[in-house]
Design goal:
393 residues; alpha/beta; 14 helices; oxidoreductase; binds 2-Ketohexanoic acid; TIM Barrel; 13% strand; binds flavin mononucleotide
Length: 393
């Protein structure tokens, strides 16, 4: 029976041709609470929509007669090979989409040759995910593994988690800086979002005081014992806290996730972080901030290649990856497309999402006259505006 189910899934997956197809099919696989938590954004969803729409404002300037019979879409991250410049963004509570949750995503990423950033709020322990993410049947050598971090008011909670991550072998942590509080998400309030009782957070002990669910997620990173509240720490600052983090991270690299301005990029460099991710949390935090594709160039211009710059938000096609790399990103992370794939068919669905993005990226490279990721540059794009398009960026 189980194998018939998997065959049917495979047939259904082969009929899914795009990430938009995957998104539509995923909707029938999740209940309203999970679907709206995954797909939704903060406020009126202006930034959520703009993340995707920004990709349509950039046009590709293809070059022809350049022998594209061989094309290499690969790159590397922390000295590990990647099949293409694509990673899987941190997303909380993946077992809401499928019982195999984070482990299925990590296995698909390892087999494909991608990298996973595990959420602090995973429904699988960071040890199990590291094992799944670094055990691969098809890519040689060790795989890279990131852990997304929220710092709690009770620093012991964070230190315990970091010690576990170091012991498990994580390469880097990505500190999310755009969430001193959780954004205002109407769907979570209306649906009384709550982690169902059969699921558990994988990185906290029962008595840690950390839990999720209730009227608003913001209220609910809360203590079971009111005497010992344990929420995100909204008092984080550049000077004291990046240094503190360095002192408790051992050899793990420190990346910042959520940079949107040249000013903060400059501060990140000044504080010696190892890399940055241009992100607006998929439009789930402050509404009306810039789309990430449009924030990317000012960050790239300040960093000038001194540390890697990654980007996430709104990436739904291989041509979107192409455009972000042209604008100076070293790597793109995708969030929701992976969750849609997971909801549709577990590990195979995630693999389908990754394969679609790879096929589209490689074809875009070839049709635009590129055979290597290093050839992608701003000269290959133009920006559309109300008057037509600007041919030079
Ligand atoms: C359901 C969901 C849960 C998320 N959970 C986290 C999280 O726990 N930590 C975090 O830093 N970002 C989280 N994010 C944001 C993603 O890491 C990423 O920034 C965003 O999803 C990228 O946009 P995309 O979904 O349009 O690709 C989450 C995103 C979604 C959709
Ligand atoms: C309580 C988990 C918050 C996860 C998160 O960052 C998100 O939903 O965007």
């Amino acid at each position: 029976m189980a194998s018939r189910g998997r065959d049917e899934d495979k047939k259904r997956l082969s009929e899914i041709l795009s990430i938009q197809d995957l998104r539509s099919v995923s909707h029938s696989k999740m209940d309203q609470m999970a679907r709206e938590y995954y797909d939704g954004g903060a406020g009126d969803g202006v930034t959520l929509k703009d993340n995707e729409a920004a990709y349509d404002r950039f046009i590709i300037r293809p070059r022809y007669l350049r022998d594209v019979s061989q094309c290499d879409p690969s790159t590397s991250l922390l000295d590990h090979p990647l099949t293409m410049p694509l990673g899987i963004a941190a997303a909380a509570m993946m077992k809401l989409a499928h019982p195999d949750g984070e482990s299925a995503v990590a296995r698909a990423a390892a087999d494909f040759g991608s990298v996973v950033c595990l959420s602090t709020f995973s429904t699988t322990s960071l040890e199990d995910v590291h094992k799944a993410a670094t055990t691969t049947t098809s890519m040689s050598g060790k795989r890279p593994c990131f852990l997304q971090l929220y710092i709690f008011q009770n620093r012991e909670t964070t230190i315990k988690m970091l010690n576990r991550a170091m012991k498990a072998g994580y390469d880097a942590i990505a500190l999310t800086i755009d969430s001193p509080y959780i954004g205002r998400r109407y769907n979570e309030v209306r649906n009384h979002f709550k982690l169902p009782s059969h699921l558990k957070l994988g990185n906290f002990e029962e008595n840690s005081g950390v839990k999720v669910g209730g009227e608003n997620l913001m209220e609910d990173i809360e203590s079971k014992s009111r005497k010992q509240p344990d929420r995100y720490d909204p008092s984080l600052e550049w000077d004291k806290d990046i240094q503190w983090l360095r002192s408790v991270c051992g050899n793990m690299q420190i990346w910042l996730k959520g940079i949107l301005t040249a000013e903060d990029a400059e501060l990140a460099l000044h504080h010696g972080v190892d890399g940055i991710i241009v992100s607006n949390h998929g439009g789930r935090q402050l509404d009306h901030v810039p789309s990430t594709l449009e924030a990317l160039p000012e960050v790239v211009d300040v960093i000038r290649g001194r540390i890697p710059v990654h980007v996430d938000g709104g990436i739904r096609r291989g041509s979107d990856v192409f455009k972000a790399i042209c604008l100076g990103a070293d790597l793109c992370w995708v969030g929701r497309p992976i969750l849609w794939g997971l909801a549709v068919a577990g590990q195979d669905g995630v693999r389908r999402a990754l394969d679609i993005l790879l096929e589209e990226f490689e074809l875009t490279m070839k049709l635009a006259g590129c055979t290597h990721v290093k050839q992608l540059s701003r000269r290959m794009l133009a920006k559309r505006d109300a008057m037509g398009y600007q041919s030079r960026l």
